Description:
Layout: H1 16-21, E1 32-39, E2 45-48, E3 51-58, H2 62-72, E4 76-82, H3 99-110, E5 115-120, H4 142-159, E6 163-166, H5 173-183, E7 192-197, H6 204-209, H7 230-242, E8 246-250, H8 256-265, E9 270-274, H9 276-287, H10 293-307, E10 311-314, H11 317-325
Parallel strand pairs: 1-3, 1-4, 1-10, 4-5, 5-6, 7-8, 8-9, 9-10
Antiparallel strand pairs: 2-3
Helix pairs in contact: 3-4, 4-5, 5-7
Bound molecules: ligand PBG.
Ligand PBG is lined by residues 119, 121, 123, 131, 167, 203, 206-207, 219, 275-276.
Amino acid sequence: MSTKLIQRGRRLRGGGALRRMVRETRVSKHALIYPVFVKDGNNIEEEISSMEGQYRYSVDRLGSCFDKLLESGVHKVLFFGLPESKDPEGRGAWKEDGVIQNALRWTGRHYPELYKITDICMCEYTSHGHCGILDAHNQVDNDKTLEYLARIALSHARAGADMLAPSDMMDGRTGVMRAGLDAEGYSGLPIMAYSAKYSSAFYGPFREAADSAPAFGDRKTYQMDFHNSKEALKETLLDIAEGADIVIVKPALAYLDIIHLISRAVQVPLAAYSVSGEYAMIKAAAKAGLIDEDAIIGETATSIWRAGAQILITYFARELARLIDSGRIG
Ligand code: PBG
């Protein structure tokens, strides 16, 4: 005897074609950005011990990274630079022949099909490892740092960046960069601001990768407190008012509520950055045989899109492209 149920959720959950037709979340390779660590020097392709499967490349070896990436169907990179030497002012960040500037010119020449985004921050270039210029009391001087950030932004623009991504969390940086770019004829160059960037233990593996851990203190005076969500909205709205074209929430997995909140509240595209700690946790658990790596990569990334992100910055970009191609997600 059959029970009379008007609604049966299971009717739509069967067979492949129907299940895929009714999906609420579509994932796409077009929405993936892959972070790339570029190191000063020659003939370098070294694995990052805290991030198995990720490498630091010298400019002359970038092709080995890009070939694999393009073959998977991912066309967008986010560059991080590892300079030869560091100093208190982070001079390497805006040098004409700095590591990022060289990488941009080389990539533009050899891989014109790649879309080149650059991370703009000072922590990889300063000897003290902070994201800005220090005052006499060893505190990051916000307003002084702004001049430097504008200078870095301009040098990336001149070297051929397609988009700039400020990650320093200084107040007013987006507006200062926008003004500086506009004044030099780069009014068409978009800014993707790390607007809601939390002070997070999930960046641990990155700081080893980029050798950018602060020599003293922490980043709590400029990165956000993870107890707060209204503050994320405030920061994001400020960045948009200052000219941000795309905004970022970072990290992603432990911040799905923030992604959801911001995606409902703003009219610009929203990106999420699934950071080094998220990558390392999945890698470690998979290596220990505790989880199915591909399944977890697909499920977690889809949850970030489902929460409201349109763009995903992730070290798993290639793996996700493969999962999309094989129909496991998307
Ligand atoms: C630079 C920057 C960091 C990350 C991206 N840009 C490190 C930090 O803020 O300490 C972290 C990325 C990751 O963990 O994958 N400020």
